[in-house]
Write a structure and sequence with these properties.
By secondary structure, the chain is an alpha/beta fold. The protein has helices at residues 30-38, 43-51, 57-65, 72-79, 87-97, 110-119, 158-165, 182-185, 195-204, 214-222, and strands at residues 7-8, 14-19, 101-109, 126-135, 138-142, 170-176, 190-193, 208-210, 227-229, 237-239. The chain has a domain at 7-27 and 84-129 and 146-239: Rossmann fold (3-Layer(aba) Sandwich). The strands form two sheets. Strands 1, 2, 3, 4, 5, 6, 7 and 8 form an eight-stranded mixed sheet that branches. The relative contact order is 0.16.
């Protein structure tokens, strides 16, 4: 079990936010933008095979990144133009004042994620993601958080990381947007969802709140004193933040 000190409410419960990155913290999918700019167009056929359920994201990413033709610095320069949801900065600051832990869970690439976070002065946020290296003249994915029994066949098993953080009395809150968040949304106590994830949560009747930006999450936190929300597998709990 990892040791952290998430924020506590008056009842003694602890709160942790697990945030997707591509399309959630950022306003666009970082890997897709990199592939569009630097990869052989065949990456789109591989992407469609993933969308069709013919493979998991681990195999998809492993195949796609080998199609990238660029120098590492070219890639870093390119992601330097990718913007984040500016309200994520306010969200991070708010959580810091309340001692609420934020963890980035991404099936993307840590090199890009950390570069973008550092640019916005957010280097203290812990990131769990896939690695990236150059081998024999081409790029190769590294999957340090892969789990063989991962139900979604992802390169980075988000559910596994959440399990490692979980303990009695801790409320795990997910913020996400897409397919890589479907599985973990079924395990989170509460999910802030948009785009494809919002449709999934509605269809599966998963406890969720629709959001469009992190400013909505901050507003929700500020308005929770004395309120009650339905949390998965828990009784109705008053949230005090």
């Amino acid at each position: 079990m990892r040791s952290f000190s998430p924020g506590k409410c008056e009842e003694g419960r602890t709160y942790m936010f697990f945030c997707d990155f591509d399309g959630t913290v950022t306003r666009e999918d970082v890997i897709d933008r990199v592939l569009e700019e630097f990869a052989d167009p065949m990456w789109q056929e591989i992407e469609q095979a993933w969308v069709n359920g013919e493979m998991g994201s681990r195999d998809c990413l492993a195949m796609q990144t080998k199609l990238i033709k660029a120098r590492k610095q070219d890639l870093l320069d390119f992601v330097g133009s990718i913007e984040i949801d500016e309200t994520f900065i306010d969200f991070a600051r708010y959580c810091k004042t309340k001692t609420i832990e934020i963890v980035i869970l991404s099936d993307g690439i840590d090199l890009f994620i950390k570069s973008i976070l550092n640019r916005y002065g957010l280097k203290d946020i812990q990131v769990f993601s896939n690695g990236f290296a150059r081998t024999n003249g081409h790029f190769e994915m590294i999957f340090p958080h892969f789990r063989k029994d991962c139900a979604s066949r992802s390169g980075m098993c988000k559910c596994r990381i959440m399990e490692e953080f979980s303990s009695p009395g801790r409320v795990n809150i997910l913020v996400g947007d897409g397919r890589s968040d479907f599985c973990i949304a079924t395990r989170a106590d509460l999910t802030f969802a948009k785009s494809a994830l919002l449709d999934f949560c509605r269809a599966e009747k998963i406890p969720h709140i629709a959001h469009s930006e992190f400013g909505d999450v901050v507003d929700w936190l500020r308005n929770q004193r004395g309120q009650r929300v339905v949390l998965r597998d828990k009784e109705l709990l008053p949230v005090v933040v």
